Each structure stands twice: as structure tokens, then as C-alpha cells.
């Protein structure tokens, strides 16, 4: 901490956030120190601009949305082996690293702990982390390499995640040699008056800055530097909750390398025109993803001459980046999107407020907003039943839940 308490009080007064120290005297010494460090780390100019943005009507610039070209992995014919061989060569040379975004908790699953530690109910009782690790190790053996694994945690689950890996001896990986942990960025939550919230623990209430924060987190944590030291040129980024995620795919790598693009993504065809998923497209000629809420019914139903949906390639958070692209994207924060959430907080009188309706602003960036920074990208359509089994909801919901993921996993592995 570089500022004394007087300087911090002056800083808070300047930005009309003096309430952040209302409960300071009641905290123990460790929490006092933590709170002051939190305050020092806040970019108050950014926070102010984010709050001001909540008052403005969101005006979407007029954009020409057009379909994006894609390649169906299983209709490549002779090109399949061609791309595969290019990718295999790069993987054998140690040019690939994997990044797993694992900052979430298992709350929606009714589970108290990091989502990656969740057991989806297989006979082996393997966690999501172990299932992903098994896949990485199996692929590494094929190519005679160990694929470096970078895991993005959150402030909330970092300690428990690392404890879990320690308990399981890192599933055969070696910490700080080929497995690395780094923490996702966070932003303060605010009320509708622009006041930063204090949580039940007396500290500033922070929320993860969305999966779009991955680029900045990789750069700020020096993980990009670590990758370069290891000779990595390509980075696969995926989520922890997809138990079928295929992080090592020579066809995807070969396609990216052959086409000389810095981003290559996997897609699965929409289950139906009305499925609530973001889909790949071009906006003003640049690669992008359009959210389901932005697609008109006419666009959703539109088909090409072969009867395929024009906007049917779902973004499934399976993306491959050239490391230089990550570094470039991490140098400039992405635009933030506003979410209005329910959040418990301590009011100015020290009372706990438990809202019954949304009361707080949360700001997050979306990973795909960076796609518009590149002139072109490759989209590879894969089979949903082979590569996409997310665990997002409890079994009572019936879709994207442990039961559906378990069934898909067993079917693929002939269990």
C-alpha cells in the first residue's frame, strides 16, 4: 500500500465514494489492509464512466450483418488430412498451450465450490478438471509433448482451486513448470446512484469482469510472457464447464495456419432456428458474434440454397488464438456490457440489505467482442455430440446439465 489513510480519504472524497470507509474501524487489521488495497487498485475514472453509461440509452451503431463462411470438419474430404498434418507438426513442436476459464462457482448446480471441482456423476467420480486434464494428457502422449495448461481462476475460488489441485497432485502436471494459475480481473459493483457497494465481509463487492477479461488477465499476469518462454505460438481458450471440450485439435490448428489467420473458432450448428445462442457472423465485414437477442426472426429462419441456416453457427467458447493476437487484444480493454443484478450489501448505517429484486450494476466484457479486431478468422463446424456438453444448470432444468453432459460423455467414450 503506497497511500496513507488520509490520502485515501481524500481520494474517496474526490470521487464521492467516502462511504467505503464507513465500517473501516470495525474491521480487523488484516481486513483494514485489504480494504485499503482494494480502494487503491480501483480505476475510479473507469468506474465513473461505467456508471455514466448506465444513464444513457444504448444506441447500437448501424451495422451491416452478413453470414460468415465456415468449414464443416467432416466434409473436408482430402483437405482433412492436409490440415491435420499441418496442425500435428505445430503441436509436436510444442507450439500449443491450453487455457481453461474456471473462475465460476457451482452455485447454479447447487454445489458449494469451484465449478471445475464438480463431479458430474460418472462411475469414476472424476471432476470436470480431471476430465479436461485426462483429455490434455491423452493428446500430449500422441504428439510426444506436454501441453502447457493455464487455468484462470477468480478471487473467490482461487485458493480452493489450487488446494484441489494440490490434493490431487496436479493430476500429473507440475506446478509452475507446465501448469499455471492466474486470477481473472474484477470490477466493483455499484448501486443505481453510482455508489460502490460494500459486501457482507466489509470489503468492496467485486464481480468478475466477464470472459472478455481473459486477454487482459493473460497479459497483466505475465502468462503471455510465460507462454513465449515455453515456445508457444497458439493458445486454445475454452470453458471449464464443457466436459467434451477438445483443446488439442490439429485440424483447427492446421486450418488457422494454412489460412494465415490469427483466430480460429469451433461452432456447432444451432439445434433449431430459435435456440438461444450467439452465432458467428460478420458485422460491417468484420468477424463477430451476434447475440440471440439481436437476431430478427427473419434472420434466424433464413437458409441458403442447401437449406442450411445462414446464421446457424453457434459460438461454443472453443477458440484458438495466435499468441500475438492475445497480446494485442490484452493491451486495450474491451467495451463493457451492463447487467442489472441482485446483490446483498452493507448500507451506510452498517445494516445488511438483502434485495428481493435487482439493485446493482455489474459490468462484464465478452470474449468475442475482440473478434472485430481481426480482418478474418476461420470457423470450423464440429459435431455437438462430440465436442459440446456444457454443465451449466441443475438436472431439474433438463438441458446443459450434469445428466445430459454425463450421457454425452458416456456415449462418446463408449462407457
Number of strands: 18
* Tally of individual domains: 2
Strand order of the largest sheet: 2-18-10-13-9-3-4-5
Please state the overall shape, judged from the principal axes of the Cα atoms: globular
Report the CATH superfamily of the largest domain.
Spore Coat Polysaccharide Biosynthesis Protein SpsA, Chain A
- Tell me the strand percentage band: 15-25%
Q: What is the gyration radius calculated from CA atoms?
A: 22 Å
Structural class: alpha/beta
The CATH class designation of the largest domain is: Alpha Beta
Helical percent range? 25-40%
Can you characterise this structure?
With 415 residues, the chain is an alpha/beta fold. The protein has two domains: 1-41, no CATH class; 42-412, Spore Coat Polysaccharide Biosynthesis Protein SpsA, Chain A, CATH 3.90.550. It has 13 helices and 18 strands. The chain has helices at 5-14, 29-41, 44-55, 78-92, 128-143, 158-167, 214-220, 223-229, 250-259, 297-301, 323-331, 384-387, 402-412, and strands at residues 65-66, 71-72, 96-101, 149-153, 179-183, 186-188, 190-191, 206-208, 234-239, 263-269, 279-283, 286-290, 313-322, 337-341, 345-346, 352-353, 360-364, 378-381. The strands form five sheets. It has an eight-stranded mixed beta sheet with strand order 2-18-10-13-9-3-4-5. Strands 1-11-12 form a three-stranded antiparallel beta sheet, with no helix packed on it. Strands 7-17-14 form a three-stranded antiparallel beta sheet, covered by helices on one side. β11 and β12 form a beta hairpin. α4 packs across α9 and α7 packs across α11 (323-331). The radius of gyration is 22 Å and the shape is globular. The model has no long low-confidence stretch (mean pLDDT 92).
Amino acid at each position: 500500500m503506497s497511500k496513507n489513510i488520509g490520502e485515501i480519504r481524500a481520494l474517496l472524497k474526490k470521487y464521492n465514494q467516502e462511504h467505503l470507509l464507513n465500517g473501516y474501524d470495525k474491521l480487523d487489521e488484516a481486513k483494514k489492509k485489504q480494504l485499503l488495497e482494494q480502494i487503491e487498485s480501483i480505476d475510479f475514472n473507469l468506474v465513473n464512466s461505467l456508471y455514466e453509461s448506465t444513464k444513457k440509452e444504448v444506441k447500437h451503431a448501424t451495422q451491416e450483418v452478413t453470414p460468415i463462411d465456415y468449414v464443416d470438419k467432416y466434409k473436408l474430404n482430402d483437405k482433412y488430412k492436409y490440415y491435420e498434418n499441418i496442425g500435428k507438426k505445430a503441436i509436436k513442436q510444442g507450439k500449443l498451450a491450453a487455457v481453461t476459464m474456471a473462475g465460476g462457482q457451482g452455485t447454479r448446480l447447487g454445489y458449494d465450490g469451484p465449478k471445475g471441482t464438480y463431479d458430474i456423476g460418472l462411475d469414476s467420480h472424476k471432476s470436470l478438471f480431471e476430465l479436461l486434464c485426462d483429455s490434455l494428457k491423452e493428446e500430449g502422449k500422441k504428439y510426444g509433448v506436454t501441453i502447457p495448461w493455464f487455468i484462470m481462476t477468480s478471487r473467490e475460488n482461487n485458493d480452493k482451486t489450487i488446494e484441489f489441485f494440490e490434493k490431487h497432485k496436479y493430476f500429473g502436471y507440475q506446478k509452475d513448470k507446465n501448469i499455471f494459475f492466474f486470477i481473472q480481473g474484477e470490477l466493483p459493483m455499484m448501486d443505481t446512484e453510482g455508489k460502490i457497494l460494500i459486501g457482507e465481509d466489509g470489503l468492496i463487492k467485486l464481480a468478475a469482469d466477464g470472459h472478455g477479461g481473459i486477454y487482459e488477465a493473460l497479459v497483466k499476469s505475465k502468462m503471455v510472457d510465460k507462454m513465449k518462454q515455453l515456445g508457444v505460438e497458439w493458445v486454445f481458450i475454452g470453458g471449464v464447464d464443457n466436459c467434451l471440450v477438445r483443446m488439442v485439435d490439429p485440424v483447427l490448428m492446421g486450418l488457422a495456419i494454412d489460412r494465415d489467420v490469427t483466430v480460429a473458432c469451433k461452432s456447432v450448428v444451432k439445434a433449431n432456428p430459435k435456440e438461444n445462442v450467439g452465432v458467428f457472423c460478420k458485422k460491417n465485414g468484420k468477424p463477430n458474434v451476434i447475440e440471440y437477442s439481436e437476431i430478427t426472426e427473419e434472420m434466424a429462419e433464413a437458409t441458403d440454397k442447401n437449406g442450411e441456416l445462414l446464421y446457424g453457427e453457434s459460438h461454443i467458447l472453443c477458440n484458438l488464438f495466435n499468441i500475438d493476437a492475445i497480446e494485442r487484444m490484452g493491451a486495450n480493454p474491451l467495451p463493457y456490457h451492463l447487467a442489472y443484478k441482485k446483490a446483498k450489501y452493507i448500507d451506510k448505517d452498517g445494516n445488511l440489505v438483502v434485495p428481493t429484486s435487482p439493485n446493482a450494476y455489474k459490468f462484464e466484457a465478452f470474449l468475442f467482442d475482440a473478434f472485430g479486431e481481426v480482418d478474418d478468422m476461420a470457423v470450423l463446424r464440429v459435431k455437438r455430440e462430440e465436442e459440446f456438453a456444457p454443465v451449466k444448470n441443475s438436472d431439474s432444468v433438463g438441458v446443459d446439465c450434469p445428466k445430459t453432459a454425463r450421457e454425452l460423455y458416456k456415449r462418446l467414450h463408449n462407457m
